[in-house]
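User: Okay, second chain of the day. Same drill as before: sequence in, structure tokens out.
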Amino acid sequence: MKTPAPMPAPRTMSLTAQHVALSLRDEPDLGPEPGWRQMDEGAIEALSRQYHEDLGSDPLWVFAYGSLIWKPDFDAVDHCRASAYGWHRSFCLKMHHWRGSPQQLGLMMALERGGRCDGVIYRVREGDRLAQIRRMVTREIRYHENIDMMRWIPVHTARGRMRALVFWAGPSGERILSKLPLHEVAHILARACGSAGSCAEYLFNTVLHLQEFGIRDRNLWTLQKLVAQEIDQLHGHPRDLAAERKGAAG
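Assistant: Same drill. Structure tokens below.
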């Protein structure tokens, strides 16, 4: 049985809350991405029931690899570390709204094929499971164009192999920028911001909360260092800026 890798020792991130503050700015809510068709209540209900019925009497586990780790929209009663083989995190989903803008493209994370992704699985409360799924579909899917990126995947844990629900897995089409060099991804993440916040903020929260579970994604760890360097170049080093402001106030 494959099990998650040993927990690495904590390390200090290069990307800091000060960097994140510099990346944020007020941007208007522009609604959905161009061409995205919002699901009505009937479509959301049908999709939610499909996954609810797929489970039968089995518990619902959700695989979290990004924002669901630090901002879940369901009620969990248990969790543990898990590894998804054949998938890896990738900042590949183009966003001109949400955490990007028409003036500055943003990139959001999804799971692409290949490699291994270490994350956390959460067991969803049983009593109102259908309602919990409906909440997740409304938050994570919401548009017809995203339905195919909700799926079941096998994950490996210290408790054995399990089936888990995952969102934003297997993206394809014109919305996807795959296999960009990390320095190009960092250039985008350091600059992109939308009504939901900045891409640097999203990266910071993901890396920070993965560390709390002893998970260090090699690419994300490199990205947070590169994004910090990009923001330093754009704005000056945060410590230098803080000293300047303190001196001006004095």
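DSSP finds eight helices and seven strands in the chain.

User: Thanks, on to the next one.
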